[in-house]
Amino acid sequence: MMAKTPEGMTYRAFLVTLPLHRPIPVGGVSWTERPVVLIRAEDSEGRTAWGEAAPLDGYGSDTLADVLDALSQPEWTRTNELPSLVCALETAHMGLAACRGKGVFGLPQDEPALTNLTPAALGADGSLEGATHVKIKVGRGGSQVDTDIERIRILSARYPDLQIRLDGNGLLTRDDALRLIEGLEGLYNRIDFFEEPWRGGFDQDIRGVLPVPVAIDESLAEDNWQCADVCILKPSLMGSPAATMALARRVQAAGRRVTVSSAFESQVGMIMVTRLAALIGDTAPGLGTYAYMADDWGRRAPWWDETSVSIERLPAIPRSAVVPGPSPMARRRFASGLKVEEVSR
After folding, report:
1. What share of residues in the chain are helix, strand, coil (percent, to 5)?
2. DSSP 33-51
């Protein structure tokens, strides 16, 4: 069933389950597939655009179950409580504005600060030729400080021009994080930042505690970005993309860096995230999560498989020309493992 608003807008929501190339650990569990919700909005003149709700259970303030529960309610298009759903609806509205010739995001005053992005590589399992930055997870499976130090030194020697981002996800103790950094002495100019070095670290300003910049990600709440050198923004988990961009401007105005990061979205969400990174001027955003997708609705998109992402080649906004509208069938399953089910009422 389609949901309508008094403004003549029509919405449909689809639960899309994306198959993955290999399992990924998220929030303490291992995913073999990634469920997201795609929102199709159509205005009274037949223009269509898409948005995506891609909550990360255990990381953001809402979950997939929360989104699906909201979609079962008659007034779900008016929700202002679930960040993932707000993000999806506003992305679709921005797409419709773009269809009417009102700029990329319906914000004509904002032109991309960058037209070419070189995303940071995620992990170091394959070749890093052409990459400028790489994110390395540390502290996996408990304290492995000596192992982490050794592999980071090996990586640094193999790629002498590569900037390395360490991501602790708050798993290390403060003492282990300090020991890790001490073990990398002589490489401090190669460490772009240390993300979430220990749990609770940003309850106070820890800039200068380590000899490398510190970055806040999942600990971000209200204004505690002021306790970090770098603020990592995951737009899909934050609600309004326009509000996310406004926050990025505030952080930059305070002399801090901003890095935009994806959250295992389909191409619909990835287009939004990538364009925000270009508007914000993020030279090395974290867009590597799309590499895990084995298939996508409307085919797997190629734009994030290369070392460099051209904003001029990227579709301006996710709309029906990019992501074909699902058929009227309530449920579909494809040989790749991709599944689509209409879930709106």
Report:
1. 30, 25, 50
2. EEEEEEEEEE-TTS-EEEE
Q: What is the pTM of this model?
A: 0.90
Torsion sign (Cα): 253, 256, 260, 263: negative
Q: How far apart are CA 212 and CA 189, in angstroms?
A: 8
Question: For domain 116-310, is the CATH number 3.40.50.11270?
Answer: no
User: What value does the mean pLDDT take over residues 296-324?
Assistant: 76
Q: Which residues pair with 229 in a beta bridge?
A: none
CA-CA distance, 164 to 237, in Å (whole number)? 25
Q: Is 338 helix (H, G, I), strand (E, B) or coil?
A: coil
Rounded Cα distance between 216 and 195, Å, is 6
Residues near 224 by beta carbon (within 8 Å), at least 6 away in sequence: 202, 203, 216
| Distance of alpha carbon 58 from alpha carbon 63, whole angstroms | 8
Tokens of 117: 């992005």
Domains of the chain, residue spans: 3-104+321-342, 116-310
Residue 83 CA to residue 90 CA, distance in Å, equals 10
Tell me the fold of 3-104+321-342: Enolase-like; domain 1 (3.30.390)
pLDDT tens per residue, range 210-266 = 999 999 999 998 899 999 999 999 999 999 998 999 999 999 999 999 999 999 999
Provide the residue type at 92 as one letter.
Answer: A
260 within 8 A of 300, measured Cβ to Cβ: no
